[in-house]
C-alpha cells in the first residue's frame, strides 16, 4: 500500500507531460496558421493594390475600343455590303467576258494552226531551235561594232549604212516573221542576211573592205559555221 502514492505521482507526471506536448503542438500549429494567414493577407493586399492601380487604364482602353468599334463598325459593314453588291452585279459580266476571251483565243489558235498547215509549216518538219538561233545571230551582229548596208548600184561603198546596233533593232521585227515562215536555220540565215528583195546585206568595219553579212557570219558565228551550205 505504501507504493501506491508513488505510482500515482508518476502517472500524474506522465499525464502532465502529455498535456504539455499537446499544448506545444497546438501552439505551433496555431502559429503556423497565423503566419500563413498573414502571408495570404499580404498577397491579397498586394493583388488588390495592383488591380486598383491598373484597373482604370484597362477600363479606359476597353471604353476606347468599344467607342472605336461603335464608330467604325457601321462603315465597315456598309463597305462590305457595297462590295458584295458590286461583285453580285458585275460577276456575271466578268465571267461572260472571260468565256468570250477564251473562245476568241481558241479560234485564233485554230486559225494560226490552219495558216501554218496552209503554208506547209507542220511542226514535224520545222527546226525547234529557230527562235533561239535567230536571237543568237542578231545578238552576235549587235555586239560586232560594225556598220551594215547594201552595195551601191553605181560607184563603190555601201548605202543605207547603219550601225549594227540600230540595224538589229529593225531586223528583230523581221525575225519574228521569219521564225514563223522558215523551216530551217539555213532559211533563217538567208532571211536575216538578205533584204526583202533578195539583195545581200554587207557588214563593214573601220578601215576594212565590206563583206557580205552571210559570209561574215559563216566565218565568225559558231552556230552558223555548222550550217550546211
Overview of the molecule:
With 229 residues, the protein is an alpha+beta fold. The protein folds into two domains: 52-118; 128-225, no CATH class. The protein contains six helices and four strands. It has a four-stranded antiparallel beta sheet. Helix 2 packs antiparallel against helix 3 (164-181). It starts with a helix and ends with a helix.
Keywords for this entry:
single chain, 2 domains, 73% helix, 4 strands, 229 residues
Task: Indicate the overall shape.
Answer: elongated
In sequence order, what are the helices and strands, one letter per element? Answer: HHEEHHEEHH
Q: Determine the strand fraction and express it as a percent band.
A: 5-15%
Please state the CA-atom Rg, rounded to the nearest Å.
51 Å
Distance between the termini: 152 Å
Could you say which structural class the secondary elements and strand pairing correspond to?
alpha+beta
Uncertain runs = none
How many domains? The number is 2
Oligomer: single chain
Blueprint of the fold:
Elements lengths: L3 H115 L11 H13 L4 E5 L6 E6 H18 L3 H9 L8 E3 L6 E2 H8 L1 H4 L4
Antiparallel strand pairs: 1-2, 1-3, 3-4
Quick structural overview:
The chain is an alpha+beta fold and about 230 residues long.
Amino acid at each position: 500500500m505504501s507504493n501506491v502514492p508513488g505510482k500515482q505521482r508518476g502517472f500524474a507526471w506522465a499525464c502532465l507531460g502529455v498535456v504539455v506536448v499537446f499544448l506545444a503542438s497546438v501552439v505551433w500549429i496555431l502559429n503556423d496558421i497565423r503566419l500563413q494567414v498573414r502571408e495570404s493577407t499580404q498577397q491579397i493586399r498586394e493583388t488588390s493594390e495592383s488591380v486598383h492601380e491598373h484597373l482604370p487604364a484597362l477600363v479606359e482602353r476597353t471604353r476606347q475600343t468599344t467607342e472605336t468599334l461603335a464608330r467604325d463598325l457601321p462603315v465597315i459593314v456598309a463597305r462590305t455590303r457595297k462590295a458584295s453588291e458590286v461583285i453580285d452585279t458585275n460577276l456575271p459580266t466578268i465571267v461572260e467576258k472571260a468565256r468570250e476571251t477564251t473562245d476568241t483565243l481558241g479560234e485564233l489558235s485554230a486559225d494560226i494552226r490552219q495558216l501554218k498547215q496552209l503554208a506547209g509549216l507542220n511542226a514535224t518538219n520545222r527546226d525547234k531551235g529557230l527562235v533561239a538561233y535567230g536571237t543568237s545571230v542578231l545578238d552576235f551582229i549587235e555586239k560586232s561594232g560594225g556598220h551594215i548596208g547594201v552595195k551601191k548600184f553605181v560607184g563603190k561603198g555601201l548605202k543605207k549604212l547603219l550601225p549594227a546596233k540600230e540595224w538589229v533593232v529593225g531586223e528583230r521585227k523581221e525575225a519574228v516573221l521569219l521564225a514563223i515562215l522558215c523551216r530551217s536555220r539555213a532559211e533563217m540565215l538567208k532571211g536575216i542576211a538578205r533584204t526583202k528583195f533578195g539583195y545581200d546585206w554587207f557588214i563593214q568595219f573601220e578601215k576594212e573592205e565590206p563583206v557580205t553579212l552571210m559570209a561574215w557570219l559563216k566565218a565568225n558565228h559558231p552556230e552558223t559555221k555548222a550550217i550546211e551550205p
